[in-house]
Amino acid sequence: MALLEWTDAMAVDVPAMDATHQEFVVLLQALEAATDGELIDRYVELLTHTDAHFAREDAWMQATGFAASNCHSLQHKMVMDVLREGERRGRAGDLDVLRVIARELAQWFPQHTDAMDAALAQHLRRTGFDPATGALAHPEALPRAELHGCGGATCTDPEELAPAAAGAAG
Q1: Within 10 Å of residue 91's Cβ, how many Cβ atoms?
Q2: What is the pLDDT of residues 15-45, one digit of tens each?
Q3: Is 65 in contact with 146 (CB distance < 8 Å)?
Q4: pTM reported for the whole predicted model
Q5: Start-to-end C-alpha separation, the chain
Q6: Where are the domains of the chain?
Q7: Could you tell me if 21 and 113 are in contact, meaning their C-beta atoms sit under 8 angstroms apart?
Q8: Cα–Cα distance measured from residue 35 to residue 30, given in angstroms and rounded to the nearest whole number
Q9: Torsion of CA 24, 29, 32, 34, to 10 degrees
Q10: How far is CA 88 from CA 77, 81, 118, in A?
Q11: Distances (CA, A) of 90 to 1, 54, 95, 109
């Protein structure tokens, strides 16, 4: 059995995100199943996909009011730093590190999807953001100030929530 299997429970109900996440899982499975001779090529495929995957999500966040330094984008950057270091070490002959990274990604990815990607998906739906065109159906739903958290109610900038809470209390 693979370290990570796609299930409908991982879906965030944004088709473009779900398709990309399914591709990630398939590439991670290919990496896990790779022979030593295939390992670097499968790893680079996963790294290339993940770089584009994260860049796309980061662009969506920027288009819908996230600060460049939000925790979701920072997590993307940290994972890419680890993946690039893994590539460097793998090309230097340390194939074991690539298998360790694959196991760690299989543990990390569902948690990232359940928390940060689900919050982003909710934000995209709330604003009516179309990932294919970049159009916003509900620009009035954009945050008044850039989001510095991950976009969920529990990690959004408290100053962003204060006016809404004051209005609800009044």
Answers
A1: 13
A2: 999 999 999 999 999 999 999 999 999 999 9
A3: yes
A4: 0.86
A5: 55
A6: 14-169
A7: yes
A8: 10
A9: -100
A10: 17, 11, 32
A11: 24, 22, 5, 21
